[in-house]
Design a protein that fits this description.
By secondary structure, the chain is an alpha/beta fold. It is built from 17 helices and 18 strands. It has 2 domains: about 150 residues, 3-Layer(aba) Sandwich (Rossmann fold); about 325 residues, Ribokinase (UDP-N-acetylmuramoyl-L-alanine:D-glutamate ligase, 3-Layer(aba) Sandwich).
Amino acid sequence: MKKIIQIKALEKIVSKLKAKGKKVVLCHGVFDLLHIGHINHFHEAKDHGDILVVTVTSDQYVNKGPNRPAFSEEDRLKALAALNVVDYVALNKSPTAISAIKGLKPNIYCKGPDYKLHKNDISGEIINEIDALKKNGGKIVYTKGITFSSSNLINRFNQICSPGQKIAINKIKKKYSFLKIRELIENFKKLKILIIGETIIDQYFFCDALGKSGKEPVLVLRDLKTEQYLGGAGAISRHVSQFCDKITLLSMVGEQGEFLNEIKKNLPKKVNFDYIKKKNSPTILKKRFLDIITNNKVLGVYKINDDVLEKSEEKLFNDKLRKLIPKHDLTIVSDYGHGLISKKSSEIICKNSKYLALNAQINAANVGYHSMRKYKNVDCMIINEKEIRNELRDKNGNIKLLMKRLANSQKVKNMIVTKGIDGSIFYNRKNNKFDLSDAFAKKAVDKIGAGDSMLSVVALCLKFKFDEKLALLIGSLAAADSVETIGNKEAINKIKILKSIEHLLK
């Protein structure tokens, strides 16, 4: 008998079986590493009915941390189909079991004992699944066997984590339980956050490369589709809104207010958007042309006026700074060097912020001109290796010595240097201590926005005095989440990060 069935076809089979009086039991999960706990769970579930159906989460929705699942959806389906106790297996192309429950309408939905306490379900979806089950005439049953963990086995015997990551995670486990970390992260809601920086509109043009022009040495592209995302400080606001409820974004738009409605529409409702209009300037627009097959960038075109603000605009902006900064617990600055933050503005920020986190970025428009030197007494700074080498005009020097040099000259308490696939380095100036983290993302779709996503969560962690290793772990997971999508298409996902932490600590 063929056990692996498309879920739509399986719905018809289950309907016929139920019409014949058969009681159908549904189990759902990832089943990344099939083990004795799963087998016992299936046998106990089968005792509640006649037919056991198992639906499997597809690869795209597996949410158990970086580089998971360890086994592909095809392999996981085959492993389950090999068990005599299982009658049918289907791939569920949905993030939860709700669609499978609605389609299959099982008599019984079986979950393991760890789901009995609904408050421990990070996603909160178990309640929605039970609601869908009841509406379709089924009931929930929790098995009673000993709970085993695929994540624990994979962490122990597989190379999901590097040796360095395993050492750091083991040290974190000695100091924090997952429930404690979750509680601490939930406390972020109490903070009032001010985000300062340029708001950018990112447009991505996905193209087909036709080849060289017949008359000129020019690459010709066919524009197939366009996507638009909120970038810059707007993207940081979306990231932070996953964790905090009271957020103000202070930014700028063009003189004519281009894209203003789009910006407001794409900012979460919990973000209060305050801005100035910059004269003789458009709202910053960055166009990127990509090969649709590889997602490699072919060309970038910026629409920008990066002159400094006029005196009247600077005064208006500085007045807003003086008014807003004292009302917020944490100030996050992402200075893209496009003329918004002057030396005088930076002095106001540094002097008045209760806790200051900074990312001052180098890009094609400001390289050679933009500097972090206008910021001092920063609590947390994130900078990539290329940027710190440019800042200190040192191409080959030891990175740790460069970090000490910049931290001492600018009085930076905590500094993180990101190194792409080589991970990141954390430096605490007071303790003169370094912590290292290997990168969790082994393959990056797009690196744009990774620093902003890391800054968003590391600043929150350090404001709450998290251990440096834990702050670096959470920030690295946020960066790994960010590089898995094109640009700033998706905000980092708090639930996904919590689940990653939960599974890494098993």
